[in-house]
Amino acid sequence: MIEGRNEASAFSNEPGGTPSGGVYEWFKRGTKLLEEGSPAAAAAILEHAVQAEPDSPSIREALARAQFNSKRYDEAAGSFRWIVDANPAEDYAYFGLGLSLWRSGDIEGAQEPLAVAVAMRPDLRHYVSALKQVRATLRARQA
Length: 143
Description:
The protein has helices at residues 5-8, 23-35, 39-52, 57-69, 73-86, 91-103, 107-120, 125-142. With 143 residues, the protein is mostly helical. It is elongated.
């Protein structure tokens, strides 16, 4: 990736690399980096946003997505679990938790959050597909 002037100026020269701007700017920059395919950079900025606003579900979800896309599955699972615990009606958080557990190797643990996501949104094919794949893997391991 080529570092542009926006990315180069995203962090101040202060010790510890605190991003310039405020929490909302960090969130916007982080989600933009995520959309542009730079999940590790997004996670770095979004981690600062979560430290500043730890109770923000929007920031937590963006961080969880960035962690997942950076292949930091255990951390993503923790972030998605925080969202599920804070708001049990968030089907996407259950889906993300299930996928994160699956990718981290906890296939059995992935089954329940994926089943909850499917129960909440049976119309979403990718939810159903993920659950079917996890269950098929578990059946194959038992055989």
